[in-house]
Amino acid sequence: MTLSLAIPSKGRLKEKSEAWLGGLGFPVSQIGGERGYQAEIAGLGDVEMRLLSAREIAQGLIDGSLHAGITGEDLLHDLAPDAGVDFRVIERLGFGGADVIVAVPQAWLDVDTMADLEAAGAAFRKLHHRRLRVATKYMRLTRRFFAAKSVGEYRLVESAGATEAAPATGSADVIVDITSTGATLKANGLKILQDGVILKSEASLAMSPNAPWTDGSEASLARLVDRIGAGAKKV
Ligand SMILES: Nc1ncnc2c1ncn2[C@@H]1O[C@H](COP(=O)(O)OP(=O)(O)OP(=O)(O)O)[C@@H](O)[C@H]1O
Ligand SMILES: O=P(O)(O)OC[C@H]1O[C@H](OP(=O)(O)OP(=O)(O)O)[C@H](O)[C@@H]1O
User: Fold this and answer.
1) Whose CA is closest to atom 5 on ligand 2?
2) Which residues form a coiled coil (predicted)?
3) Cα gap 62→170, rounded to integer Å
């Protein structure tokens, strides 16, 4: 059977994914121009190449509808119910590096750590009779991290984008989001908590333990893995 292999269809990860595969000797050619969602890859054998959003790729690897793909580790960790079994990272690719972080308004002078945040949450609840609201796209990562830090005085608000604006617009008090240069946080008057780095992410080639593997699809992935020099990975 064919190996289903996905790379991001747009955004910062797309070009670099194509360049990385091309550099290994597996050039990707897009069908229908820049905006087409179909592509071909040369040299890997029987491969169905898919162009999807980074989030869809992570979901497809976890549910087994894709064999392998390039996506952000942040998305894999957030979408996987069990990161230990739902995907396997074959190779970290050295681009798309960014941190998932907890940030609060710079004006909160007495909140610099997760413990401070819990104390502020308790005080806030007493004063305003409601919990602090945390805006994020990273629902699972946030819940896990807050529980690990023993922070319970909060409520999640799912963000559809522009998360850093939430405290200023009043739709939330705290945010969990991804940052690389820190410029967006700064522009929105936010600071990262000292122990508030949840995950250091980068773009990765990952495979799905849940996909229907066959000799053919394993052989195609093995060709790619051998070329990377990562050694054959057992499916
Ligand atoms: N500022 C950043 N610097 C570096 N890598 C980033 C940054 N923001 C996101 N990424 C990485 O790129 C991945 C995809 O993010 P991107 O915003 O390009 O796509 P998306 O979230 O699928 O797009 P959209 O928001 O349009 O749905 C993220 O999950 C993360 O791994
Ligand atoms: O730390 P920074 O370098 O400021 O990057 C952070 C921003 O990048 C991502 O958004 P998106 O992909 O929409 O952002 P962009 O258009 O700012 O690259 C992320 O959701 C942040 O908003």
Assistant:
1) 179
2) none
3) 34
